[in-house]
What we know:
This protein has four helices and five strands. It has helices spanning 2-28, 33-50, 105-124, 145-148, and strands at residues 55-58, 67-82, 85-99, 131-140, 153-166. A hairpin with a 2-residue loop joins strand 2 (67-82) and strand 3.
Amino acid sequence: MATSFQYYQWENMDVVFQNELRNWEYFVQETNVFQEKIIDTIGTFLNNEFAGTMAVYTGYFKNVGNQSIRLTPIGNEFVDKLSTGEIREYALEIAYYFREKAIKRDAWEHIMRQVSRIESLFNDNLNNTYFNGRLDSMAINDKTEEEEETEGLNVVKWDFNAMYLSNVS
């Protein structure tokens, strides 16, 4: 009788572990808000607009073609706890690169047209999967050491911030 009782306990333990595994799998499938809801959303509308004319990528500086846009996640900050979830503000650096060794009036006009076009796209997408998206500030040719090493590189950088409601219950 004792042997069958021990066997029964192990069968129940297996069911408990299987349930725990199911709960763990659910946890692992949580949404990566920064990538899926912020960066991918921005990358999509930029790629739709500039398809084939310039690379849009995430991460550190890469010397990619004559024009490119880089999306770099900076961080996020807790804004508010609601009864149904929490609001966080996500920060990114958006960089537009244009490579031209001899900058003349035509080149600057092109850069400023692209800057206006990019700013318009962000304005058109203030509330996408995120809300209150905004380009807070912009700097021209404020380069990192790595960017300085690329001859003829011009850069326009924006600080982008947007809010997202997550952990909704």
